[in-house]
Known about the structure:
Blueprint lengths: L1 H11 L5 H19 L4 H24 L9 E2 L6 E3 L9 H8 L2 E7 L16 E3 L2 E2 H16 L5 E5 L4 H7 L10 E5 L3 E2 L1 E2 L16 E2 L6 H8 L1 H7 L4 E6 L9 H9 L6 E7 L9 E5 L2 E5 L9 H5 L6 E10 H9 L8 E6 L5 E6 L13 E4 L11 H8 L3 E4 L2 E4 L9 E4 L1 H4 L2 H6 L6 E11 L1 E4 L4 E9 L5 E4 L4 E7 L5 E3 L1
Parallel strand pairs: 2-18, 3-6, 3-11, 6-7, 12-18, 21-22, 22-24, 23-25, 24-26
Antiparallel strand pairs: 1-13, 4-5, 8-10, 9-17, 11-15, 12-15, 13-14, 16-17, 19-20, 26-27
Amino acid sequence: MATTLLRAASVGFGLSDPHREDTIDAVSDDIDHLLQTVGNEAERAALTKNLEQFQILFAQYLQESGSKINWAKISPPREGMIREHSTLPHVEDADAISGLLSKLVVLKLNGGLGTSMGCVGPKSSINVRDDKTFLDLCVRQCEYLNETYNVDVPLVLMNSFSTHKDTQKLLRKYNKARCKILQFNQSRFPRIVKGTLRPLPTDNKDDSQWYPPGHGDFYQSLQNSGLLDQLLAEGKEWIFISNIDNLGATVDLDILSHVVANGESCEFVMEVTNKTRADVKGGTLIDYDGQTRLLEVAQVPKDKLEEFKSVSKFRIFNTNNLWIRVSAVKRILDARAMHMEVIENSKSLDNGQKIIQLETAVGSAIKNFKGGIGINVSRSRFLPVKKTSDLLLVMSNMYLLQHGTLRMAPQRQFDAPIVKLGDHHFAKVKEFLQRFENIPNIMELDHLTVSGDVVFGKDVTLKGTVIIIANEGEHIDIPAGAVLENKIVSGNLRILDH
């Protein structure tokens, strides 16, 4: 099976180099061996489907690995490629909103684990506000829309093999929620040994030798699951996709109204927002030789990195909040015309072995759709929780929680402050929570840096710029009720004006 399929894929991508042909033959033999290690019929069928997709991506990687993006063809977005959210017509009529929502599916990318924050299981199970998890908030948002407008907006989760089983258990608590929850798994691909380009696993048992191939796998996995056809049969026209840890990614009725009204000429909308110095590595929309493209930092030549990071030339970045026409996904997949750039993600295993993961990004598919554009949205729609420093913000009095949605408190006059917490003492959620008797009042905070063994008492207030540094072997207790405004707190507990 593998030899024929991978050979066909390589021909389709125009591969004829003898060395590459040898690689294809070796990888084909490895894949055939992997299939032979599985006796269970259902498991074998699932593995076969995954390896079919892997071979197509692998052949594309071999064909394109030597090619570089032509920087001379790159320009900032041309006129009309980016539309300001403020120019969209505002929709208020309840009946009109119900009609719009009846066409919508909300999809959350739920493949990540909480390990980087010291948690076990899916990241979506971490408590982020008022004892509510990411998943709790997503369900409540859809439930509120369904209750308010008497509609049935489903919540779809794209899980990975790492999160699927635990997510199944988590979903039991929502049996009575007014929100239909659907789920499917993205693909499971073998990691690749960097030196030989051969698959790392020799059987299907050790999950650590396999990986989920990025959120660009959404398109094919949605179709393979049968959900794509099911959603079309139910009259769903648009999918709103976002990362489950982006607490700002809620259903925007004005964007929904725009895409439904313009779906024939605009099949893909990417929400972008203005760059700050903290976002210089974020992917950006570009004009590439007259075509709308997403440019990721991994594609940028080393000598062009500073230009890519420039806020003046590339002033916006991709939030990964995407609105995609369902029928267009089917049309493109049926025509086998979906192309996304392959991202080579190099990693080192615990034993030092160097491996490669081939991945794709869901937003890079914009070039395959008719009339794809970006809509420049408020920074409030990009509120990712990647570290405990982000968690401090969303747990604070700077945000209000209503119907599953976080909104910045009206008393806050500016954007969110910059918060930097030391990795050694604050990186894990459990340790982070133990260092705060309660979350400080940060309504007037501009910048916070904390490093070392620091503990905060109850009802602390932080204003302006506050820097707290405990040197190695030292300990700092910020007393209950303390008000720190433009202060530097050093290891010997001196408090200085900043």
